[in-house]
Amino acid sequence: MPAQQKKLIFCIAGVLSFGCALGTAAAIGTQLWVRGTILCTTGALLVNATGPELHKFIGEIQYGLFSGQRVRQCGLGGRPFQFSFFPDLLRIIPASIHVSVILFCTVLIVFALVGAGFFLFNAFGSPYETLHGPIGLYLWSFIACSCGCLIMILFSSEVKIHHLSEKIANFKEGTFTFKTHSEQFANSFWTILVCSLVHFLNALLIRFAGFEFPFSKSKDSGTITGAVDLMY
After folding, report:
1. Which of 25, 84, 61 is nearest to 186 (CA)?
2. What was the pLDDT predicted at 75?
3. With 0-12 CB in 10 A as exposed, 13-18 as middle and 19+ as buried, what is 179?
4. Where in the cell is it found (predicted)?
5. Rounded CA gap, 198 and 42, in Å?
6. Any bridge partners for residue 69, and if so which?
7. CA–CA separation, 59 and 55 (whole Å)
8. CB 104, CB 150: distance < 8 Å
9. What's the whole-number mean pLDDT along residues 168-190?
10. How far apart are CA 99 and CA 163, in angstroms?
11. Would you tell me which of 28, 126, 147, 148 could form a disulfide with 196, CB atoms 3.0–4.6 Å apart?
């Protein structure tokens, strides 16, 4: 492939990686990871609410990795409540999983920025070390894509398997009991999915540029080409 086309491909991949880093950083700070509704089962059972009457007992909840808000409905109108995971909810949530999600988000941002830097370096400079060449580009893309997948798996398990929304809804509730009525992942969660797909696309762009993976040195070129096989 001509050098100009390779340069263009690396520029596109670098911009995509940088955009993913910014998108992930923005997603971490929002409360748009999960949205749902919560049913006040205690209040609904007290008045034997059915059909349209249930709407008076269905509140809302949304949260991210650090904070969120809920609106409890127990027949007397909405009561908004702001909460924070640190330190308020650490006793009731799977803290190890939650901290791991935040950690992998940080790693994703770091390696997305590293990948963007090396993509642009390979576009406008000349590789002089192995990690500046194709091997490094595959490596950064693979790590970033893996982190994105781990974030989605861990956070999904925290929400679905550990019933995170119900634990949050029943936080500091001594009299009323709440149950998840509906629940769906929101924009920030899907941003992580898009970033994972982008890093996978970057690996395909590297392959499209003409670099094989894995990189194997031919036997007959042993001492002649040496380290040149790791570059381009």
Report:
1. 61
2. 72
3. middle
4. Membrane
5. 46
6. 62, 82
7. 8
8. yes
9. 90
10. 17
11. 148
Which residue shows structure tokens 């027949």? 75
126: tokens are: 């000349």
Question: Model confidence at 87, in pLDDT bands (50, 70, 90)?
Answer: confident
Domain boundaries, the chain: 3-209
pTM of the entire predicted model: 0.83
Token pair recorded at residue 229:
């096989």
CATH 1.20.140 matches 3-209: yes
Element (H, E) at 49: none
Q: Please answer whether residues 36 and 182 qualify as being in contact, where contact means their C-beta atoms are separated by less than 8 angstroms.
A: yes
Locate 69 and state its tokens: 């808000």
Q: How far apart are CA 213 and CA 210, in angstroms?
A: 10
Q: What is the number of other CB atoms lying within 10 angstroms of the CB of residue 91?
A: 9
Chain-centroid distance of CA 3 in Å reads 34
203 within 8 A of 138, measured Cβ to Cβ: yes
Q: Which has the closest alpha carbon to 24: 94, 95, 115, 158?
A: 115
Q: Cα separation of 82 and 85, whole Å? A: 10
Place of tokens 């642009």: 120
Q: How many other CB atoms sit within 10 Å of the CB of residue 152?
A: 18
Torsion of CA 133, 137, 142, 144, to 10 degrees: 140
SS (H, E, C) 82-150: EEECCCCCCCCCCHHHHHHHHHHHHHHHHHHHHHHHHHHHHHHCCCCCHHHCHHHHHHHHHHHHHHHHH
Q: Kindly state the tokens that stand for 209.
A: 């540029």
Place of tokens 């969660």: 189
The one-letter amino acid at 56:
K
